[in-house]
## 1
Amino acid sequence: MHAHQPRLEQLKLVRLLVSIYRIKAVRVLFPLIIIALVYLEGQHELKGVKLARTLRELRHVPVPDILRMMAAALAAVAVMSAYDFLIRAHFRMKTGVWSTFRYSWIANTFNNLIGFAGLAGVGLRTLLYKKSGVPTAVLTPAIVFLSPLMITGLSLLSWANLFGILPAEELLREHRWLVFAVWGMALYLPFFIMVQRSSLFAKWINRGEGRTPWMTVYASVGSSLLEWLGAGFTFAMIARYMLDGAPFQPMMSLYVIAAIAGILSMAPGGIGAFDLIALLGLQQMGYASERAMAVLVIFRLFYYVVPWLIGLVLAAFEIGQQGIRLLRGTAMETSLNTWQKIWGWPGQYTFLSDLGGWALGKLVLVSGLILLLSAATPELMYRLRFTEELLSLPIMRLSHHLSVVIGFMLVLLSRGISLHVRRAYIGSGILLALGAVFAFAKGFDYEEAIFLLLVAFLLWISRARFYRISAPISRQSLLGWLLLTSFIALSYYLLASYSHRGFFKALQPGEATEWLQQHGHFAYTAAGGLAAAWLLLSLAAVLRPNRRAEALTAPPDMDRLRRYLETESGNALTHMLFTGDKSFYWAQDGKVMLPFARVRDKLVVLGDPLGPKELVNDAISEFRTEADRYGLTVVFYQATPAYLPIYHEQGYRFFKLGEEALVPLDHFTLSGKRNSDLRSVTRRFEREGCTFELAKPPHGVELLQELRSISDEWLRGRAEKGYSLGWFDESYLQLAPLALLRNAEGAVIAFASLAPGYDGGVTVSIDLMRHRLKSPNGTMDFLFISLLEWAKAEGYGRFNLGNAPLSSVGRNPGSLREEKIAHLVFKRGGHWYGFLGLRRYKEKFSPEWEPRYLAYPVSLSLPVLTLDLVRLVSRQPKVRK
């Protein structure tokens, strides 16, 4: 034991560091610290950057140079496929050459733009290769193998920097902290090689086939070196064209240092740290700030944005409904590896539920931003002159303003595209076509027009994806999009004002066209475009046909429910369906019924579906398909163990809510030492003249008024709860017997409503329970004892005492983290609810405990779902007149 103590202590230290890092605030803070450090180091140089001059530099790049730089960037991205061909060969994955290249392009371009530490690539590769039928047993070690090797090439280039092959002495002398960053990156390569050649790596990753061959190690480092050399060559080539023949070696050296800073920041694409270091280095070499910034803008555009847009197009065709089915299953869970768990996944997997729709939505979003960017920046002079000769000035001005409005509308509609809403597809298609026309009319911007028409074409050929009638819109979502579009409008105003002001200064006297001379009032254009977009889309939403989810959540048909229960069995929760706060979905030609209530974007089914069990699986699929047409998710609340295999087949996860107390009446007795306390309570109340009475419906007005006063006294001003709990509603109480406990004077001091089990007289449940605040101790005990004895005499098989929330949840060491937290709440949360006390109270009646579960799709966040369920149960019920 003592021999293993150091290893255990190291493991605890690693776990502590991982736990600290998994705190989101820490993960956000670290990149900010790196970027802030770089900014403080070079804040003087950054003040020299002039955005207007940078835009002028970009506008004057010759087309042949643009094509050469674009070709170099695309080739650099293409060579990154060496990673995927490496794992294809090493793990003998049976995927085609073209498929491997496509998967590589999608994963790498997404990872470049929006991922950090390779995690976006990990998620996408998992989904794409799983879609192609690669077994999990092969895919998991392949992903683990690939994750750490992606920076080995940069580590090798760091050694070249340290040995003077790629010198950067001046930059390192000016910013001393970068020396430590370069050394840290350089030391990663020998560490990587030691791990690859270790026996543990051979056992866990190579699946017992021996140590990683040296040839594979060389190929791994070579693949990474190809990536970083390709990116560095692209950067150096762009610098050469933009900076009048800048030498290759210093540009490559600068790229290596900037890339190391970007990796350390862990920001998407290294944005911030990379750009600042590169800008400082270029200025230190004597290049003007606006030209240096132009190099960075073109590098970001050609190496990151354009390849990502191509990746979006490929993803739009690659993944559809099959991706949803994969995500609902266990494919993503079983392929999780140590790297993903350390970084806090699979929370970041949620956007992959349908990457195709997500990609189309982002293409529409980018289309809107491109229209706004085009409207905010000055057009080329020769195009303006040509357009002024072809069209009148009012048409150009109107086209400009309409481009802004359409840009904002496309930004807003992009969310509907991601959610597969058909009306968003129709509106986006029309707006993209109009946007292309106005892009031509405002300044002959044919590049933007071609891109918009391409996106419209992609939407058209993907039209089968858009099947939803509507999608839920929450207040938080509306507020978020309002803030986003307001920020975009502000950015449009600042960019337009600043860039045009600098553009005018650079023009020769008399060179401005009539359009430029009258082109202004950017604040009005931004505010008017934003307001017009919101107004038009709001009118479209308000005036559209009434085909929203209200048709799904129609008022319940109680007569149909009564007729249904005459032939089909119910359960312990069926009687609560008569409260009127739940809707009914009739599936399988009316043979199966699912009772549910809506909260935000979720349809929460109470208990298990009613009907023949062999039809339930298909009924759930039918209900989920119908709910999905409105962008809603189906959840099952208080599911029983008998139906868990069906929910599991549907791809649901489970969280234990607690246990139901079921008293077997054939074993219930007051005799024996264990029940001495119950006998004492019974004798005491009988001596005091208290009597038990069972009142059958219909109940008189006087009795209900007396019970109302008891209920109000018991509530003490608190609001009633609903959904899974009964409440005081006179029409609801008329549907079942009432158990009454009267004192010696004949006044009711406690009552309880009963709920039949609709199972042929086998089960009866207690529903609503209320008592006078000044009732004697043991009042509810005597009421329960009397009810149990009455039910036993009536021939019932079992009595349901109700649920004990969080009972027996999270007690085992292997329980889920959320269930362990729930167990702490159960033990320590007595001052909130009295979970432990409620369990102990019901234990007095010797019940059998049956677990109840929450079944929910893997795409939902359990904490958010829990808050929604609390909101649903706490929703104040409407009392029927």
Note: The longest strand covers residues 652-664.
## 2
Amino acid sequence: MQDNATEVTAAGIARLAGVGRAAVSNWRRRHADFPKPVGGTETSPSFALAEVEAWLRKQGKLAEVPLRERVWQQLAGHPEGPLTALVHTGCVLLLIHERPTVWLDASAGSDARLAAMLPGALEKVLTPRVGGVRGRGGAGVGGARAGVGAGVGAGAGGVAGAGGGVNAAYGRPAVSGAFGQAGVNGPSNPRAVNTGSASPGVNSGSVASSVNSGAASPGVKSGSVASGVNSSPAVPGVDPDPTALGVNPAPTVPAVNSSPTASTVNTPPTVHNDPAVHNPASVGGDSAAHNASTAHSRPTVHSTPPGTSATAITAGSPPTPALTPPTGPQLLPSAPLLRGAAELAAEIGARQTFEFLLGRHLDANPRQYTLTPAELAGLMADLAGPARTVLDPACGTGALLRAVDPRPGQELYAQDNAPELAALSALRLALHSRATVRAAVGDTLRADAHPGLLADAVLCHPPFNERNWGHDELAYDPRWEYGFPARTESELAWVQHALARLTDGGTAVLLMPPAAASRRSGRRIRADLLRRGALRAVVALPVGAAPPYNIPLHLWVLRRPDRTPAAPEVLLVDTGRFAGEARGGPDWEAVREAVLDAWRAFAREGRLTERPGLARSVPVIELLDDDVDLAPARHLPPAAVADGAEQLTQVRERLGETLRLTADLTPPPADPAPPARWPLTTVGELARGGALVMRTGGNGGHARVPVLTDHDVLAGTAPSGTLPESEEEAVLTEPGDVVVPVLGGGAMARVIDGATGGAALGRNLVLLRPDRTALDPWFLAGFLRGTANNRQASSYASTATRLDVRRLHLPRLPLEEQLRYGARFRALDEFERALRHASRLGEQLVRGMYDGLTDGTVAPD
């Protein structure tokens, strides 16, 4: 019955059956027994997956749903949405990864038994692997047996006792608490922060009257005595009292932070009852408007995960742990999905299964997330160097922390304002390494989950151009050691937050917009970062390195100074020369080699021998002018004159050779002939008859496989794309294949040669693999490029033209005649390539001449 809750759209049915969406529409019209819609809208209905599978098998249109596709459709059509389904699946995959025998025992019975046994089993796995928020409520997830996710400011011992306050265990003086005190997120004024042994201010403020109370908030480990603490008469709690279902029964639990005479929790005491400066709720702050993962992975709508009260992530309350084990009733609709995911994990592994599903979801919703490319994440982790404790305060989907080299005893700290992203990051990191993961939900700048952490490294892809980052609420925050950021300088607030969370000598690497290096509103903070030796390097990345792809982003490398250098210098690197063509992306190998080589040499010597046009170390005094402009391009010398002139000469010689070759390849005059009347066939008929195999581009694959994109086919360039990393089997090209783009309306087909063979097929491409004994590849590609042929096979949407490759025509000719046509088509292809090459060389020569004449390296006569 539960499987019927999983819904699938017409596009999903088309993928299951390997047909186009038009075929699904025809089935609905022609077959009265086609399953009726169970959801969606009139224009985009959804159907029960089980009913669709049964109908397809009955019609002989589906022998068996591929396991990967079945699991993905169950996840995408989950009644609570794909994000909730991903969290449930990730929890179970971690259980399978850590304790496979427990999963085998739980899954042996019915779905109801599985859902009843899983919460207790998941808690035992999540507590040691995905630890709670230190300083926020004891060990594990919300404290030992105090309730997973219930420890919002209190753990096993209620109010933290000796050494239980925030910042008590990190080695730096407490910001919001001290040894022997229980202050959590009190006022940030250092003169009045939880002073005195009698100050019990836990989340004190005029608005804190209860914790997660309300009829809509599921109780967490609720007991008969707990009055007003996570109470919920309408929703069954996690680990409820012994009268409920017998699922992980717990004895009566005393109220957390409650007293015999008061039914409320965290009642404002007589001390610190003024609105806290560091408490946005007390001054009208709105953390929901600020997303700590904007630049990393921000969904359009932020939902609260099951078992987490919405009040737990408001601006006025401390951040909550990222993961709370779902309850039995919440897991019951996911039971078929969990069983399918376990079956897939048995084939490819638990980690690979989660990466496949997460990558498929991110790829299916490209406009909802702004991701950090894996190559950039690896570069940032390498710049930070090996570290035992690493923090990402805007973690998104965890790409940066996932790129960190594992070490024994490693701890990974993460925070994100989106609950679902924080949970997915925690699961992804726990599956990826053996490190202890401490992930939390909350607005990092307004409600830091790790206020006393001293990390060895901080990696961050912060939100750009945020104006509602807490400027008014955080005016007296002690993190602004280098100056109070202007409202328009949110990025400099993240820079100082990262420095505040570093141990002395620790390294932070942040992805920054280029404007942060030169805006006048931030010049005083930039100057102080330089004077005190905190800013060590600024690296200008090529255009297209990360979203937004149209500007060259910067990397800032910072170190918390343990001492000020005697003669401080700053490393400036510009890798703009390694930008790729159009959408191909940069040459990451060249970028990585250039940046790491310059940084490591600078880190050893404290200075770098000048590398014209690429890198140099600049004395701080040279940068401390009225602008304090740190843009590398403005301080790097141009390439050596001799090299520039010599390069222009080489380009001119290559252009001359190419033009001579182009002249030789020019087709001879065409002889007139009457229109031919050949018998015609279609690509679809040839595929059904076995004369060729037809494949479409995939949605994922191995990260290191080069990908042939539709732009590469249209531009005639080498494979330049990437696919989301997953264990999905990519479609690999072979020499002799014919690749056709399906979008854009242009008449184009490309025959794969030996240099391109082996690349993965990208999206919006169709691959045709002809049987060489019946069909010549060049003959096939040539006739597919006919303008009239493409026009009759194209369909038009409101904003795009799509080609139905199956409808393309070509004549029925014997193989000998095909080879004659194929030789002529091949000659035309060589001529076209030569023209393109000559065009690129010509543009390069013209640009070089303009640059040489304007910078004085080329004489006008």
Note: The first strand starts at residue 7 and ends at 9.
## 3
Amino acid sequence: MNTLMKAKNKIFVFILLMSFTSMIGQTIKGKVTDESGVPLALVNVLEKETVNGVSTNEQGEFVLNVKKMPATLVFSSVGFTTLEKTLYNVSFVTIVLKEDNVLEEVVLTGNRAKPRTILDSAVPIDNVSVRELQATGQTNIDQMLTYTVPSYNSSNQTISDATAHFDPADLRGLGPSRTLVLVNGKRKNQSALVYVNDTPGKGEVGVDMKSIPTAAIERVEILRDGASAQYGSDAVAGVVNIILKKGVEFTQVNVNSGVTKEGDGFNIDGDVNHTFTFGEGGFVNATLGLSYQEKTDRAGEPGKDDLFGVDNQWTRDNPDLGMIIGQPEMKKGDLFVNAEYPLNENTTLYGFGGFNMRQGKSFALYRPPYWITDDFGLLTPPGETYDGFQPTFETDIQDILFTAGSRFKLGGFNADLSGSYGRNSVDYTIGNTINVSLGANSPTSFDAGAYAFSNIVGNFDMSRSFGDVSLGFGVEARQERFEVTAGEEASYIDGGAQSFPGLQPGNALNETRTNVGGYGTLDWDVSEDFLIGGAVRYENYSDFGDNFSWKVNSRYKLGEAGVLRASYSTGFRAPSLHQVYLSNVQTLVSGGTISNQGTFNNVSPVIRDLGVDPLFAETSKNVSAGITVKASNDFTISLDYYNVKVDDRVVFSGEIGGTDDDGNPNADVQQILDDNSVTSIKFFINAADTKTEGFDYTMRYKNIDFAAGKLGLNLALNINKTKLEGEVKTPTKLANYKNAIFNRKEQSRIISARPNTKLLFGADYKYKKFTAFLNNTYFGEVTWQHATDPNKDQTFTGKIITDISLGYELSDMISFNAQVNNLFDVYPDEIDTKGDVVTDLGGRFKYPWEVNQFGFNGMTFKAGLTFKF
């Protein structure tokens, strides 16, 4: 009897346990290896006929939450046969993949009807894992991509107000505004900042890439092809799609710290990532991160000040002119989540997003005593002699992103309904400075105002495959808002605070616009090898009108060894609200001296009276063609050509002064200068046509037997060239200002501020618990052009930056990593002024700042620990 009761109890406990397991969710854990038992990292694990998936970690392990059991999983990786496995209960599963001569890595970007493999895609797509990004040793996602994707460029700026805290980034040499950034396939909001200083990307608006924590990212897919017909505005150069983590088996904690060879730039960061599971297949992946970064200083040492024509005792006692030039100070905190919950077998709810907050401090030009002769005792400690001061530019940046939606079945179609809200803001504080006109009553810290940009986006997408035909269509509605908040009166009155006069009440605004778009895509697999497809999109904007874009593409498989592909598309980029409405006054080097310069917005009567037309959309034509070949199981190569023509490109004008290109006075312009107490004015205008041509080449050779371990080699190359076509488009009333509106200096920001050649050559090695990465990045030459005199141009030669990263698994739960970035302490060429003090601001700058290759911090050391539990 007791035996029977014990058996019944065991059955009851088993049933109870199974019921409890069902309640907490269907979580599948497993490991993927090759035929010899070696764990395979970065294998795509995808729930069949969904976009629910993860990648295996370095130990080949994965954790995936599914809606219900049984579930069919698809395992795919480059160089291995794709495997489907149906699981009927929740358990630990071991998967063995066989090597094969195919390219089967699944990607989601660029295929709005259904996911495709790299081989099946008709356009070039990079799939970069977070492991590859972290191996660069860089601290931000924009810098990580710079050192893994040859056609992607970003570098830290300095002495450039808020631009020093954002770092403009671009793809294929087409500027920050022409790359669309997605998170989990949904549009990411732009930043609040227009890059109005003398940096690459001047006059443009990008996405705040620093707002997305690396610890929350599973991988980044980069579509290197025009995609306006699929995704709308900004996708002229391509699309960066950031895929967030889903199921993670362990709680992972990362702690890293670093410092430069010079002993400055100390940084430390920590983050934790964990997945909470609930219900039947529900999960929340959460990431919390904190970081701190100190400034660096690489100022010049001229011993005199040619900008002011001064060589006296003060300059000899202060050969660096009191300057601090380098990366800014930065404190950062972020929280990101990615969640899903299946209501039933046909409907899944999802939500993702996060909050990022950064406080930064950069520096303006030092005010020596011969520039500002007195600080009224406000900045000088009691008993000390006044010695000048260096104003600080302090930012409070906040970025919010949240998307909620549902994927469901509707009449046999896969449907996706979502809503997104995104907002980026930057508040300015000007510190350690004074408003000279206020004398001893001046504050020493000023609230200089704020910018904010936000959008609300609604999407409804549907897709379905009918045998060999895949159909997709959808609609999008978006409202955008640009806000400018004025600073305190003391920041702008009577000339304003030294270094940055605050935003004035006349600059304040709150403007919106709306747009509605619809698209359709069609892919036809004519045969197993031959695909043709296309897309069309119509958009209507409330401020400038409508646009119609289209695209056709095709690919042909070369057996199972590779693919030929080509596409042609038209595209567009709507002028940003920032470019339409921005206005301010800045203290800059203008007219060969330090003075206040005014930016007037595109709707201002002042600008309209000069004959400047309202901004309208840029249009583009994009041609690409390429080949991908799998030469062997472990050896792949690809080569792609692209040609992008952009018409009516929006540019930020040069300095418009009281005299035209021929030196003749212009009474209308002079009156504007006098009325606004500025020496020059600037504005945005559709002024230029450009053509960008280039090649992307990649080579990957992996699993090479070497010293009892496995060696991998990779080579990636981008060569591109942008040139201006036709005449600069000039308003009739400013016909003699053609050079001033878009002079040689401004042109160089488009054609030569970024390297036209970038080469990555690297190796990775794994032996048991030891891993090593070696990467060499060649940044090609860049050229700074003088505004009017070609004899004063300077070309800065190409350089090779070598990075090394080492890792060791101390145990199953603890691993150690160490990196040396810029191993050989390489710096750019030094500035040769050739008699023009503006190129180095009187010797303050030792290295180029208006054109940029890789920054100038020199060698950096970094080390960290990863804990799993």
Note: The first strand starts at residue 26 and ends at 33.
